[in-house]
Amino acid sequence: MIQIKNRYTDIVIFESKTATTIKECVVEAIKSKANLSKANLSEADLSEADLSKADLSKADLSEADLSKANLSKANLWKANLSEANLSEANLSEADLSKADLSKADLSEADLSKANLSKANLWKANLSEANLSEANLSEADLSKANLSEANLSEANLSKADLSEADLSEVDLVYCKMDKKVFKQITEEWFEWTIID
């Protein structure tokens, strides 16, 4: 028997009598439309799991392995995903607003049309990620690795890109304010001097 508990109260929010792993338990919970908001799933191995449309708002997924997982249209509002492995994960159209993704590995992840407004992406690895049409307004992307990321048509209004790696980033039709534009052009100017 495997249980999923509330991260704040330690009360059991889902229990499986057939699952042998936490991944099987979480998938079963989602299939039964269980509410996993505030779930404690820190350090869980959820790699390649189908978690599409799951309600994981305010859940603790810190240091979890979500590589290649399907989280499309998932609700991850205010979730703790710090230091999580989300490489090659499908997060298209997911709600990650106000989520903590600091130091998370999102390399090659699909974040197209995702809502990342006010998200904490400090030191996150977003290299080669697809962020096309994503909402990154007011997101903290300071010291993030955005090399070769696709940010076409993304909203970067009021985002913090200080010290972010923007090498070979695609910013076609990207929405940004003057402060963001200044940060980006200063980074590019520094690169041309170094080259």
Verbal overview:
By secondary structure, the protein is low in regular secondary structure. The chain has a single domain, classed as Pectate Lyase C-like, CATH 2.160.20. It is built from two helices and two strands, in the order ββαα. The protein has a two-stranded antiparallel sheet with strand order 1-2. A hairpin with a 6-residue loop joins strand 1 and strand 2. The protein is elongated. It starts with a strand and ends with a helix. The C terminus is likely disordered.
Key attributes of the depicted protein:
195 residues; little secondary structure; Pectate Lyase C-like; two-stranded antiparallel ribbon; 2 strands; 14% helix; elongated; disordered C terminus
Structure described in brief:
The chain contains two helices and two strands; from the N terminus they run E-E-H-H. The protein is low in regular secondary structure and 195 residues long.
Main sheet characteristics: 2 strands, antiparallel
Write the CATH fold name: Pectate Lyase C-like
Give the distance, in angstroms, between the N- and C-terminal Cα atoms. Answer: 58 Å
Which CATH-level-2 architecture?
Answer: 3 Solenoid
Question: Which strand order spans the largest sheet, edge to edge or round the barrel?
Answer: 1-2
Q: Could you state the order of secondary-structure elements as H and E?
A: EEHH
CATH evolutionary superfamily: E3 ubiquitin-protein ligase SopA
Estimate what percentage of residues fall within beta strands.
under 5%
The coarse overall form would be: elongated
Structural class: little secondary structure
What is the β-strand count? 2
Compute the average pLDDT. 92
According to CATH, what is the class? Answer: Mainly Beta
Uncertain residue ranges = 189-195
Radius of gyration: 17 Å
